[in-house]
Amino acid sequence: MKKIAVIGATGLVGNAVVAELAERGHSVIAFARNVDKVIKHDNVQAVAFDVNNADFAKQLVGVDVVVSAYNPGWTNPNYVADFKQSYASILTAIKTAQVPYALIVGGAGSLYVAPNLQLVDTPDFPADVYAGANAARELLTELKERNDINWAFISPAAMFAVNPVYFDKTGKYRLGTDDVLMNTDGTPADISVPDLAVAIADDVENQAHLHKRFTVASL
To answer: When you count CB atoms within 10 A of the terminal residue's CB, does the N or C end of the chain come out lower?
Structure first.
């Protein structure tokens, strides 16, 4: 079993990831602004610690994997600045602590819908989340240039959190790389929250996407 730090442990994705990892028997350190919202489990240690604190790296020493589902909050007027600053701090801490593997939970905006056309650049992409999606795309671009940390980046299915979220757990999913995964009827695919958490937990255990981005969708 692994010692896993989850950043953003009370968000939609982070909460489900903490639960899935804990149920699998892993030791989870759950970082959150409000530790009272962290799920209660014998395998979960809730920690309130600012990722921008200069000592954050010390919190990650001895951790086998970091899962970052960090999100500054979609209603945050300083979303982009906070996202960039916090991820600079998170990546520095991961490097300093020499974490063996880090999985960044990003968005679907950087997935391709056609050659040289990413979802975030399509005409119908929601304007209210463009800035945040673009920040995640820029983060992925930065990561692709780095080999000083052992990163991986997961993009959920294109319709995740665009359609109403659903919580049916099948424990199954399909994998892709850089392109939007589609349904058989030609529409963009979705995935449930718990199945996304299963995919994240599987990658944490198998570490199958070192220095790669991948995407997941429901079957």
So the answer is: C
Kindly report the number of other CB atoms within 10 A of residue 21's CB atom.
27
The model's pLDDT over 135-158, given as tens digits with 9 standing for 90+, comes to 999 999 999 999 999 999 999 999
DSSP 132-186: HHHHHHHHHHHHHT--SS-EEEEEE-TTTTTSPP-----S--EEESSB--B-TTS
**Do the beta carbons of residue 158 and residue 189 sit within 8 Å?**
yes
Rounded to two decimals, the pTM is 0.96
Going across the sheet that includes 151-156, the strands are 44-47, 27-31, 3-7, 65-68, 101-105, 151-156, 213-217, 174-176
Match 């063996």 to its residue by tokens: 100
Tokens 């692709």 — which residue?
144
How far apart, in whole angstroms, are the C-alpha atoms of residue 15 and residue 42?
15
Which helix (H) or strand (E) segment is 204 a member of? helix 193-206
> Beta strands 151-156 and 101-105: pairing type?
parallel
**Nearest residue to 157 (alpha-carbon basis) of 116, 114, 195:** 195
